[in-house]
Amino acid sequence: xxxxxxxxxxxxxxxxxxxxxxxxxxxxxxxxxxxxxxxxxxxxxxxxxxxxxxxxxxxxxxxxxxxxxxxxxxxxxxxxxxxxxxxxxxxxxxxxxxxxxxxxxxxxxxxxxxxxxxxxxxxxxxxxxxxxxxxxxxxxxxxxxxxxxxxxxxxxxxxxxxxxxxxxxxxxxxxxxxxxxxxxxxxxxxxxxxxxxxxxxxxxxxxxxxxxxxxxxxxx
Amino acid sequence: xxxxxxxxxxxxxxxxxxxxxxxxxxxxxxxxxxxxxxxxxxxxxxxxxxxxxxxxxxxxxxxxxxxxxxxxxxxxxxxxxxxxxxxxxxxxxxxxxxxxxxxxxxxxxxxxxxxxxxxxxxxxxxxxxxxxxxxxxxxxxxxxxxxxxxxxxxxxxxxxxxxxxxxxxxxxxxxxxxxxxxxxxxxxxxxxxxxxxxxxxxxxxxxxxxxxxxxxxxxx
DNA sequence: AGAGATACATACATGCATGTATGTTTCAAG
DNA sequence: CTTGAAACATACATGCATGTATGTATCTCT
Lengths: 220, 220
Known about the structure:
Two copies of one chain form a homodimer.
Chain A: H1 6-27, H2 34-40, H3 45-51, H4 55-80, H5 85-102, H6 104-115, H7 124-150, H8 160-180, H9 187-201
Helix pairs in contact in A: 1-2, 1-6, 2-3, 4-5, 5-6, 5-7, 5-9, 6-8, 7-8, 8-9
Chain A binds a DNA duplex (30 and 30 nucleotides) through helix 1 and helix 3.
């Protein structure tokens, strides 16, 4: 075997990432060797070591690959619902649930992050990134809540940060349990109901059937 | 070294479990070898293999060791609040939070189960037990909710199972995030507030400062 | 068109984790 | 008091995962 064109090289890189996502999801991060990943990709360890420093570098790349579309979707929601923080919150939790249920890549990565990966020093890079994301996400939700309170969408005196932490935990917890056993409940439905339930408890008045102004249908 | 008395043997077994809890919590389950555990316990792998079949048997024993006191605490709450399902729910989430914050063993085990352990086939025994626990726990919470609805403590028409799933996820999610970074928030306070917030959203009317009839002070 | 760099595959050396087999005391039962 | 077994420690064999070094054929640039 020998040198490929740049496009082909990018394709093999993708193959490696796909294979890693598969095998990590099936056997867990720690228990999978680079040999298994290479084999599952139809390559050898040489290819893996060429494209990635080691297993944890691969993991970081995997995380990056699934982070971008999620952030784009969030940005789109931000842009479309500038003046309605409550609707933004509702749309975002629904959007995450939708992605997890319908996009295998997002679902697999969530499964890996929550269930197939030990949060220890070796994962430090990925872990720091994850914790960083989480903090950023939390700040974002907190500010949504703060804005909603300011606009009178939620009860005055509500602790925005505590409300944000709890809502975030609620969604993550539902995700964790659903990934453990997807047959137990309808993830999208429960996430939507729980979100609205939580917001209602904070004094929100929601139109029952809808989650704020309808966003345009998006093709998948 | 040679044969010890039965009590001494039980003591070394405990030493091994303590060491395993330590090292698993520090380095993750997959990355720790039985050699490290034995060394941390001041023993050799021979001792570990004498008392346990392998690493996953050890993990199961660890889980068992921390499950019992929690279940006892739950049973006590059940006994003391027979006629007040809503108070039982509030006491139990508070009790779990209290144990996690103040009892190192419970906290370490939660950390291992949620953050330091890959949920894969090799952990099948422990994992099945964990999932089983979770289902049993969920059924328990569901029936508490159902009872609360029957007694008029919650809004009629509430979906008991969905409410239970979400509350469970909420607490687990808070636990997950708090263990990831305990400096972020006051776990006990947020759990208590979030629980009450959730129940309020379901139509509960709670006396603000207290969580049902006072349980007797318990020594630690 | 030649040369160097690219994109891998192959080969090699090393180390560690596991499981088992065997040794060695000491306890405990008869 | 003897004997078998308990409660470990030690020794051994095996396999796998890792990282690197090297080979090699092809692309790409000039």
